[in-house]
Amino acid sequence: MAIANSRIVADVVEISEFPDLAQRYMVRGVPKTVINDGVEFLGNVPEATFVAHIQQVEAGYK
Amino acid sequence: MALLSPETQAEIKKIFEELAGDVRLLLFTQRDSPLIIPGQDCPSCKDTRTLLEEVAALSEKLHLEVYEGPADSEIAREHGINRLPALIMTAEGVRGKVRYFGLPSGYEFSVLLGSLVDVSKAETDLSEDTMNVLDALDKDLHFQVFVTPT
Known about the structure:
The structure holds two protein chains of two kinds. By secondary structure, chain A is an alpha+beta fold. Helix content of chain A is 29%, strand content 24%. A two-stranded antiparallel sheet of chain A has the order 2-3. Chain A is globular and about 30 Å long. Chain A starts with 7 loop residues before the first strand and ends with a helix. Chain B is of the alpha+beta class. Chain B has one domain: Glutaredoxin (3-Layer(aba) Sandwich), CATH 3.40.30. Chain B has a four-stranded mixed sheet with strand order 2-1-3-4, covered by helices on one side. In chain B, strand 3 and strand 4 form a beta hairpin. The longest helix of chain B has 15 residues, at 107-121. The two termini of chain B are 22 Å apart. The model of chain B has no long low-confidence stretch (mean pLDDT 93). At the A-B interface, strand 1, strand 2 and helix 2 of A face strand 4, helix 4, helix 5 and strand 5 of B. Strand 1 (8-14) of chain A pairs parallel with strand 5 of chain B.
């Protein structure tokens, strides 16, 4: 998605090296995805589910 | 000693046959120093650099640029980097930013190789519905995917 759109920054973060982030985002399982610090989900999800999370962000979460 | 065995290198070269365009790999890492500065320690910086140097050597389409310095250096800030090691993968036609923080080891190493191929193609296999949603975005989006080395 970040390849296709200039408004997207996509990061992969190794939590073992950045435990402060693991703590801040309460990562208890991986892969855990956080969008704009507001919407989060665990595991690999289908594309449509990922998009639904994006729409949730668009709808009002900061 | 090389991190990648000759067998692994051969496998990676096969994957890299799929590389379409040139890819820039911008690595932000600590200056190699015998001194450890408290609070600025980066235990995986050295391995990450070695690994990426070995990977980049496997294809002439991969261009590694190494930026040494603290995480708050000007060039790092310009790219929105505040942690080390950090890697930005980009190519002509890539619109957003694809970044990797930490040492890509284990399963994540194959994710990295896949990302390099995707970035070089600068195209995705996203559905039309997804593209429509992305085209209509009225916010900037920051995805953070947290992983562990396995």
